[in-house]
């Protein structure tokens, strides 16, 4: 059994796909170290770059993306442990663990106050990494528990009430809706859930593992089940946003926020009679990537195959709807031209990392998922690898409707590095 399992995992090595060498370039530690040295004081974190020269823009810690740069430093520590630190691979340039720990400190005040809603899951990532290295680190233990909400920091507040100033995810769960609330809204009965929220369930599993508090696990299961029911279309594509009425639990509307189009009716489409025969929705590729990764992660923790089947439907949609050049567009249904349809390199690296997770969990199809992941990484490297930029990759779409695209993106780079690490861990790539 062990032998055949290995064969399945090793098979892609002899397949046509090759892992891009840039995934292990010594430019990666060089750039990450330079970015670390340039962190403003008091600390702010890089989120995305300008479009011309690829220079990072920095944001205050109370921003949904703040955890990704410290987590990137931990990822280079992981790489150092996998590959050793040499001048050839560039990993000898710094003590990545010390840098990761130090860069995490700016996130600690957010445990008690932040305005990031469900994104506390992403903010907690560096502390989750710390616990894999030092499971008794009190700072990291407290952070994970606080962000998840398994300690009662806020007496008097009830589950299901919005607490815009309150940091924890569990407090955002509403049993009538069956989800944690993603964004806060002016009308509190307008309960908004976005597909991205699937990624933030990780913090609930980690905190459940630390404390044994079943409520946290049950919230993750309920959120995933409700999302499975309402966010996914019959063809395996996803809505970005589902709004529920928190009084009644019913779905009020399904729509996009960052994708190309909502569910518009025929009257908005004079002249496009053929398209109007269908509901004209579109699928935002990063949401689809968060979704496939999030459901694979639910399977990893719960071992309930329903979640793997759901991840499979989302992954199949993602892969079947790639254009022939294999480059992930920011929205699968945005027209090629006009307007021009930029790529989203972050959707590509998130999906690739999620597919590698599926490759380790789904023995029957592991070769398919691994090949698809390496293909996404190769195609995006060819398009978007930018030696002269501060980010590793260009061609990220932060937010098309807000006219923010053709940038580097901190989480796109993080998942690029993580995918490189995972390929080594899985025995599918060698350290250079
Ligand atoms: C514990 O973790 C925190 C942040 O995660 C870090 O700042 C601190 O240095 C760590 N402490 C030790 C003793 O490693
Ligand atoms: C478990 O977590 C829930 C949700 O945050 C919380 O309300 C409850 O008090 C916790 N239970 C214990 C025993 O700590
Ligand atoms: C939710 O339902 C309640 C009761 O029917 C109603 O008063 C409220 O306006 C609804 N909220 C939204 C956002 O539709
Ligand atoms: C999409 O719009 C059509 C026409 O307005 C409506 O019948 C349908 O229920 C809508 N679908 C969703 C999922 O909101
Ligand atoms: C797996 O999840 C599905 C969907 O939530 C649920 O109906 C089913 O009971 C779960 N199975 C097990 C064994 O827990
Ligand atoms: C990738 O980015 C370059 C500029 O950095 C741009 O010219 C090109 O059109 C982009 N391609 C896609 C598919 O987004």
UniProtKB/TrEMBL annotation:
<dbReference type="InterPro" id="IPR052369">
    <property type="entry name" value="UG_Glycosaminoglycan_Hydrolase"/>
</dbReference>
<dbReference type="GO" id="GO:0052757">
    <property type="term" value="F:chondroitin hydrolase activity"/>
</dbReference>
<keyword id="KW-0732">Signal</keyword>
<dbReference type="GO" id="GO:0000272">
    <property type="term" value="P:polysaccharide catabolic process"/>
</dbReference>
<dbReference type="InterPro" id="IPR008928">
    <property type="entry name" value="6-hairpin_glycosidase_sf"/>
</dbReference>
<feature type="signal peptide">
    <location>
        <begin position="1"/>
        <end position="16"/>
    </location>
</feature>
<dbReference type="InterPro" id="IPR012341">
    <property type="entry name" value="6hp_glycosidase-like_sf"/>
</dbReference>
<comment type="similarity">
    <text>Belongs to the glycosyl hydrolase 88 family.</text>
</comment>
<keyword id="KW-0378">Hydrolase</keyword>
<protein>
    <submittedName>
        <fullName>Glycoside hydrolase family 88 protein</fullName>
    </submittedName>
</protein>
